[in-house]
Amino acid sequence: MGMTNILISGASVAGPALAWWLRRYGFRPTVVERAPALRAGGYKVDIRGAALDVVDRMGLLEQVRRHDTGMRLARFVDAEGAQLATMDAQLFGGREGDDAEIMRGDLARILAAATDDVEYVFGDSIAAMTPIAEGVEVAFERGSRRTFDLVIGADGLHSNVRRLAFGPESSHLRHLGHHIAIFTVPAEFGVPRTELMHPAPGRTVGVYRTAGAQDAKTLFLFPSPQGGPDHRDVAGQKALLAEAFAGVGWQVPRLLDAMWDAPDFYLDSMSQVRMDRWSAGRIGLVGDAAYGASPASGQGTSLSLVGAYVLATSLATAGGDPAAGFADYERRMRPFVEANQQLAERNLKGMVLRSAAQIRFQVLMLRLMPHLPGRERMIRRVTEPIRKAATAITLPDAAAIAS
Fold first, then answer.
1. What residues make up the domain containing 147?
2. Which of 5, 81, 255, 372 is most buried, by CB atoms within 10 Å?
3. Using one digit for the tens of pLDDT, what is the confidence trace for 148-201?
4. Cβ–Cβ < 8 Å for 206, 196
């Protein structure tokens, strides 16, 4: 049973990372991406634990370090912009040691450049998949048809491959009760290398500028509405966000004014993907498409990088048997996935505070922390669960396969 020609749907992080490892192992991957070009937008993302090892094994760690966000400080402000408390940016992000933080768009460009020998098809998507003897016949939206040995969905939370092969996404998404919005705003809104956070009851707004950035990014978190627009209805999503944050102080009215011209507006539910299996025949899933942990986990990018490595390695060691490769991939990844998904609900409780009393208590604790005798112990309570989850896997040995 051959599995040389592999179609990957999605060119964000998991897709190009998987393509890199597949090429190293002698496969011929093709990446198809619905967008007309590489997606440049996105928020800053963390790379921790086992994911750092994967990036290092790819020889890309130095490039990732060069694109570090350089964030130094997190400042909490009230409705008038007055400072309430500050904390170190590393602690605010739950990072320690060698953990890296990079803009998602920068990471996507690094991975794409590292796979310049891989065929990328932009501006197209999979319309249908038909299992045939020893492969999958794929019909593309632009009309062409091709046959592949395997198809891998690396196409995110709203995965097209998952929908076609495993049924409606409603049976696989677990909503966490909140929505998130992210978009670019003019640099004047931010302070260089500083994360500005404004907590309001039930809603949180943040703005930051990374080192050397020519613009700023803003983030909104709020309880999920009943119903709401489709995830591709951008105008409806912007109207929803404007309504959800009407009356909130600080820079929010001006940020919402800037929203209408934002080139990279993103709004979606904070959801996780929960599935009993990540493959069906010769069709598999990786990254957010298979086990999205939600932005609240802080581990979506790391899961994608590790998942891509483990999937490619499992297929390479399967002796041409895709069922064996997919089974090994699931066996190795599922405990790691579960450990990282569990972070989301814990983190979300501190990201959106329900009442003014909770906000006052959080601000008080942040002010007192530098002066408390048990400060180091308190910091470990924040970082230890993240560190344990980020390292909760033993990576297979790529060197033995490549040789």
1. 5-68+100-173+271-345+387-402
2. 255
3. 999 999 999 999 999 999 999 999 999 999 999 999 999 999 999 999 999 999
4. yes
